[in-house]
Amino acid sequence: MVDISVVVVEGELVMDRLGDLGRLEEPSLLVLVSLSSGPKHGYAIQTDVASFAGVHLGPGTMYAVLPRLERLGLVEALASDDRRRPYRLTGAGEGWLRSALDRQNVIARTGLDRLGAGR
Amino acid sequence: MRGWLVRLYPRAWRDRYGDEFQALLEQQPATVGRVADVVLGAIDAHLTANSLERRGRWLSRIPELMIAFGALVWAVAFATREAGTGQRVTNLASILAPMGEVVVGLGVLALPPLWIGMSRTARLANVSLGMAMLIGAAYIHAVHLVGLTSGPDYLDFERADVGFGLLSWGASILWATAMLARSGLPRVPLFALAVCSAVTLGMIWSGNFGYDFNPATGPAFDIPIELAAAAWFAIGLSLLSRAPRSEVQAE
């Protein structure tokens, strides 16, 4: 549940809840994490996500997520000589991803601590 | 096969993402699961297509159009309030009433694809509410058709106010459903739609929706017309206020 961060593009509040992405919330987070290691095109994002999360993002899902993230200013497309266009995290995307992961980290640590304390 | 899949997407989407999307499809085998994923993605793209449009194209003018249409509906309802003859603005009736029928009928036909598309991207509460609204529209449609086929005492199809009512009410519901599929509506227009729906359903329940219509007591559809107009107003204003500047100002 990562829904409290604020995204500002060109000084304008465009999204205050990742929850507005509906059920694309988790795939969006996976794409952003993948792009955090550098620009990638769609297929490279798919293989990277599969390697670190064990999740295969279908092509329809991938291209439901990328236009939304691009529209929100979290990622941007780079110029490319071939048809495979790479994307990279923007400054806003990096800031948003960092706060979302911090929050998830707090939740994960809390849960693990409580599980440990219960044993 | 892959070209056919890409063509399922809206033209504006294909202009922007078509080449890279096809390149991605060509890098992996077309399994049943991937094809289904692409079909769902295409439905999603159609549901969210207008947010990719730029200001200046008519789709991005929808909020303003809704406000203008709400004003028109309200003005006609107000101007003809005193007529009370049951034959108000009859020169428009033959156009508006069938339009209302078509719009509500499209809502019924749109149920399966909307359900598939919404269940993929929207929150469960939005999906449920949107489906409830569309099922309500289907019910109104069915009642109206039963009224039309049950004899002259039920509903006068030539009435402009009935046409206005069906058109604006049905279109309000369809548009609200599309908005729900995208990101959810603010509470004010949802409240307006809920009031509009409740009054209309109440009129059906009490037998005033075309049933036992009495010209001497005036048209039974007056209140829903104005409520529908109010709903259009509220949704249009809401959409206008929610449009992100980064989209609105883009050229």
Nutshell version of this structure?
The complex is a heterodimer of chains A (119) and B (251). Chain A is mainly alpha-helical. Chain A contains four helices and four strands, in the order E-E-H-H-H-E-E-H.
Structure description:
The complex is a heterodimer of chains A (119) and B (251). Chain A has 119 residues and is mostly helical. Chain A has a single domain (7-118), classed as Winged helix-like DNA-binding domain superfamily/Winged helix DNA-binding domain (Arc Repressor Mutant, subunit A, Orthogonal Bundle), CATH 1.10.10. Chain A is 54% helix and 11% strand. Chain A contains four helices and four strands. In chain A, the strands form two sheets. Chain A has a two-stranded antiparallel ribbon with strand order 1-2. A two-stranded antiparallel sheet of chain A has the order 3-4. In chain A, α1 packs across α2 (42-53). The radius of gyration of chain A is 15 Å and the shape is elongated. Chain A starts with 6 loop residues before the first strand and ends with a helix. Chain B is an all-alpha fold. Chain B has two domains: 2-47, no CATH class; 56-248, no CATH class. Chain B contains eleven helices and no strands. Chain B has helices at residues 2-6, 11-26, 32-47, 62-79, 90-109, 111-121, 124-148, 160-182, 187-206, 222-242, 245-248. In chain B, α5 (90-109) packs parallel to α8, α6 (111-121) packs antiparallel against α7 (124-148) and α8 (160-182) runs parallel beside α10 (222-242). The longest helix of chain B has 25 residues, at 124-148. Mean pLDDT of chain B is 59; it is low at 51-56, 82-94, 151-161, 204-215, 217-223 and 241-251. The A-B interface holds A 9-10, 12, 14, 19-24, 41-43, 46, 58-64, 66-68, 71, 73, 82-85 and B 13, 16-17, 19-25, 27-28, 33-34, 37-42, 44-45, 48, 51-52, 120-123, 126, 183-184, 244-247.
